[in-house]
Amino acid sequence: MRHRIIAVKFSKDGKRIIAVKLKWPMQVWSLKEKNVLKVLDLFMEIGQGNHFFYTDKCGREAEIEVVDLDNPNGGYIITKANDKKEDNLLNLIRF
What we know:
Helices cover 9% and strands 38% of the residues. The protein is built from one helix and seven strands; from the N terminus they run E-E-E-H-E-E-E-E. It has one helix spanning 39-47, and strands at 2-10, 17-22, 36-38, 51-55, 61-67, 76-79, 93-94. The longest helix has 9 residues, at 39-47.
């Protein structure tokens, strides 16, 4: 199943995305609060075959992937590499 990320929440120090808000939260079992998925739960959802994406202001989609999951400080999410600089989770609304 595919899920669109519409907003991000950062850690208190502003360095890491800790949660995402989804447009269509149906069939995401890890949701703890309405439309919000913690990044650690997002890792699990991606591992189970769910796909998450970001849509820029022009309507182009960029898939989300997990990187550096073996890092002791924890992995993080990014948009898959492409030639569009504006495909970046940092451009999303914060909540």
